[in-house]
């Protein structure tokens, strides 16, 4: 149809064709007359697909708490982060966010969120309701008081961060919540008394009422039939879920594409977007298969190894390819940018503790910013003044004679007129 | 309070005190004058607690299809059965009940149900909806046709047997139903398309509409959080369940009281009666622990052994003691009277293939008809003409001067007047 098109990769993008779209640009002069044979430079500026990671490592940097080489190292890590990731998950664990009752860490988290936003990274808050990492001062309070405080805490965080953090894990790990027995907490008895679905309703209704524009997730590590049954009950009860969160911590080894996609298929049948919220793959020894609660595995040292890093890079690439290839998946969030301070001390980072990128980082960057990305490309308009831009859905920019126009490539074919400055 | 009481066992009944009750009988003459120092013989005639077993082995006998030694052996087995069990689960597996479309085995099942009823045994039908043992002729039909036929089949069976079979497994094994992959069937696609809860609603609403007095169960072998989540969703959706069915096939070994009661506690918190619908314990080698679907274990021969029989007897006693000791449990159904033709060829029967009772049969009989039972007992009324009968809840009979009166011992203290014939 149009004389000039661009398409990054071609064949590799076939496997993920549902991720691409097409927008036709028509270059006109200030009279509206199409300009044939005119040079247009197009480039992608952002992915529509969510490539997320945790933002836990940047609170000090964002709040100016680092100096000297520590600050420089953090800035370097930040550059690696923002080059690949479009979304940061921020820690709102109640017990760490408000260890002393009435003194929440709001200001510090706000500065962190702003710091990310200023670098083009969207934010997600994790989690509003969970039975783990609870404040001590909640223990021993009567259940109705716990519920009142939990509701207030949801409204407070969602309200304070509205416009800055508009995606939330409204509630985390509900399947196990009422029967959780790996540590005293005030939320398990509440969930047991209320029941799972009323507890979920509490989380979603409070968050929704406070920020009607928020994207609210149910998130779980239990991907068995239990989660299916829970979701079906929640949907049947009329609680509005915006996306289903699926954790995939793979400290015990990559599950493989077949198992992963079969799991995704099971949850895709509810017609809701799927967010792979917590993905980790180790670049060292695997955790023994007999461990059930990953938190129970404590080792003094868990190094990243050359063989482990090669395996991790291969698995990261396969994992992302397969998930980006599934139409129901809207985002994949990796659970760690660096090994320094990683959960369980596991070498799940994409960057080593010394700040050097692992092969997994390079592999993921190559997918996100090369194979699935439209770098600046020079096109020429056809006789009707048109160029067709076909690429991964997201935000783009077109430059004509030094004037820049933003446009999008979406699910439906798009059209946009570019007014060229007088040449 | 009263001068004369009876109580079988005393101390052993303390552990199951919530199972007992008290009824005070007052013996009067035909003028209504209390008769002091008068002999009353009381005896229990039926347990309120449901001691069930499958009735699958008696279809031929009940329908007069046996002769000679086969008939005699079946009669002997029937005597053992009716001496202990108060409820029989009858097989309504659709694929066997109606292997040829339009020719259901109604008459034969009805005679079997009547045969049991005439022997004082109540009936339960199993199951109205299930994805296994499906008729071949259902395969390949469009889903809406499958649903229509499934609904008709529920109404037909529940309607035809109302008054005779008033307890039903309305639906069986829903947790796995939409993701079941161990055999083509028409119900899995239906459950997948409808969702678990609407499928459950279909089963309960059709059965309820047909027989409003029926006791309708949800029944499952998956006793994990998945079943909890399913139940919570069903209750939240407003589907009325009369009892929660819990399968406990223990071919891989007795779970022990602690595990069993912890499981029962998890399901007791919904405030519904619990029926242990399918219990089996082997009196031979255990099935290897790595088998997930018990149906996958096929062995040419699986004998009952002396050591196995001793173990089974011990486990049967512990199992029944612990469950009868839990207030939420209303019935325990054992899954097999005899090893002959037992599911999977496993020696789970309480009677050997040759018709001789195993030690487990004797152990269970001793509990049900001795320790937890009031045999004929002679009491004398006090100066106000009264005797107090304290025992396991159920039906009783009192004889005074050759006149017999039925009475009950229930949860609440009871009183009843017996008019003695002129002496």
From TrEMBL, chains A, B:
A Pfam family the protein falls into: Glyco_hydro_10
Gene3D superfamilies given in the database record: Glycosidases
InterPro entries, per database record: GH, GH10, GH10_dom
All residue ranges annotated as the GH10 domain in the record: 71-367
Keyword Signal included in the entry's annotation: yes
Family: Belongs to the glycosyl hydrolase 10 (cellulase F) family.
Identification of the protein by name: Beta-xylanase
Superkingdom, natural source: Bacteria
EC number(s) reported in the record: 3.2.1.8
Top-level EC class: hydrolase
Alphabetical keyword list: Carbohydrate metabolism, Glycosidase, Hydrolase, Polysaccharide degradation, Signal, Xylan degradation
Family annotation (SUPFAM superfamilies): (Trans)glycosidases (SSF51445)
């Amino acid at each position: 149809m149009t004389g000039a098109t661009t398409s990054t990769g071609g064949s590799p993008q076939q496997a993920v064709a549902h991720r691409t779209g097409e927008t036709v640009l028509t270059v006109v002069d200030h009279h509206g007359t199409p300009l044939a044979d005119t040079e247009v430079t197009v480039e992608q500026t952002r992915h529509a697909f969510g490539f997320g990671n945790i933002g836990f490592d940047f609170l000090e940097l964002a709040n100016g708490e680092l100096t000297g080489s520590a600050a420089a190292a953090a800035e370097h890590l930040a550059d690696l982060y923002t080059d690949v990731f479009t979304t940061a998950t921020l820690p709102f664990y109640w017990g760490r966010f408000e260890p002393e009752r009435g003194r929440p860490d709001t200001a510090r988290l706000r500065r962190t969120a702003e710091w990310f936003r200023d670098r083009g990274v969207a934010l997600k808050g994790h989690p509003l309701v969970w039975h783990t990492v609870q404040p001590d001062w909640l223990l021993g309070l009567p259940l109705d008081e716990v519920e009142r405080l939990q509701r207030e805490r949801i409204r407070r965080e969602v309200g304070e961060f509205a416009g800055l953090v508009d995606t939330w894990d409204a509630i985390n790990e509900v399947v196990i919540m009422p029967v959780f027995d790996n540590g005293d907490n005030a939320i398990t008895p509440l969930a047991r008394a209320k029941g799972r679905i009323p507890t979920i309703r509490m989380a979603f209704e409070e968050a929704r009422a406070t920020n009607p524009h928020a994207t609210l997730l149910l998130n779980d590590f239990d991907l068995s039939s239990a989660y299916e049954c829970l979701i079906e009950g929640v949907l049947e009860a009329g609680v509005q879920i915006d996306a289903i969160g699926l954790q995939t911590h793979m400290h015990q080894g990559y599950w493989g594409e077949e198992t992963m996609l079969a799991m995704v298929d099971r949850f895709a049948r509810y017609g809701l977007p799927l967010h792979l919220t917590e993905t980790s793959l180790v670049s060292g020894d695997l955790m023994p298969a007999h461990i059930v609660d990953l938190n129970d595995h404590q080792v003094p040292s868990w190094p990243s190894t050359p063989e482990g890093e090669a395996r991790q890079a291969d698995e990261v690439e396969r994992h992302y390819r397969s998930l980006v290839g599934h139409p129901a998946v809207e985002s994949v969030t990796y659970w760690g940018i660096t090994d320094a301070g990683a959960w369980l001390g596991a070498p799940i980072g994409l960057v080593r503790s010394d700040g050097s990128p692992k092969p997994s980082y390079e592999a993921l960057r190559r997918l996100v910013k090369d194979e699935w990305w439209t770098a600046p490309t020079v096109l020429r308009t056809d006789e009707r003044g048109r160029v067709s831009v076909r690429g991964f859905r997201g935000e783009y920019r077109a430059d004509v004679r030094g004037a820049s126009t933003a446009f999008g490539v979406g699910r439906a074919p798009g059209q946009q007129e570019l007014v060229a400055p007088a040449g």
